[in-house]
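pinging the channel bc i need a second pair of eyes. not urgent but kinda urgent?? the chain im working w is below, pasted from the shared doc
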Amino acid sequence: MISKMSKLTLLVMKSNIDNSIKKLRKLGVVHINEIQKPISKDIDKLNGDLGNVETVLDVLASREIVKQKNDKNAESIVDEIINLEKEKKELISKEKELIKIKDWYEDWGKVTLKDLSKIEEYGYKVKLFTQPITYLKTINFDEMPNLFIVNKNKNTVKLAEIISNDQEEELKFKPIELPKLEYEQTQNEIKIINDKLSEIEFTINENSSYIDEVRNYKEKLEKQLEFSHVKYGMGNSEEIFYLSGYFPTEKKESVISEADKNNWGIVFEEPTLEDNPPVLIKNNKWIRIISPIFEFMGTTPGYHEYDISVWFLLFFSLFFGMLIGDAGYGMIFLILTIVARKKMKDSPFEPFALMYVLSGATIIWGALS
């Protein structure tokens, strides 16, 4: 059954906004609608903090939890891991560039930049080129004594042209750029980066013991964000601020009582067809067992619609019994459900109760047919 809702407009003084929102939250019966789009630096910061927390939880979720003394607060853990992940990305990016340089040397030979520089000091230039292997068929090395093959494979050839400063270049292709680091220096820097990455991984793994604290911190931020959305989504006229929302009509006395205690102005209205109140469905224990099916289907009736929970449960049970159509299978389902319930005593009641009903329907239909 869909609970009847009432529409509430609540008016408070500017000086009493924060306290009023806290009281409403504690009351726990009012669904707030935003009067205006909430815009605030507080909201931006909270969204940023929540994004960082979710990133940290994703990082920690893949780690094996290390048990140790928890002597840090969640906020500092989040900041530390975010900074470590940022540093990790920068190091990985730098490592990729260094690996490209390392690969260059392995392709062209482990020459040194120092040697190439000395050649230039003696009045010669060294130019490096890469061309398709078919290029070799177009040139005559006897006529190009300054051109040398450095390396080749079935697809490409690597060429070096060594000429004096007063000679004209014979190859008009764009030369390959030389790396800025020596081969040995490149290897050393890659090792330093790998050592640093290992340290970062070790530190992050150590912080995996704080995952529960970070989850609690996320819940705290979500509540603060919800609070800020309500606060900055209120309408106002000078010193008077107001908000709108819905609550179950049966809780009307509680709302009136809280308004009297806190000097709120309140206006009650009945929802119109244009309104879209939240839907609160209240059914007895045995009708609620169909809720897992509705949740799986993502089906919720609108406030102005009819709740078909009872009829759906009846016809779904009948259809299930007809579909299986065998009392033996019904008994198997029933026994398996009883065993599963005994092993999972702390699990929700509804899915098991639904299986009891479906098993019973199958047994009855199978016996009758």
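so The chain has a mean pLDDT of 86. and The CA atoms of residues 328 and 363 lie 7 Å apart. — does that match what u expected or am i reading it wrong
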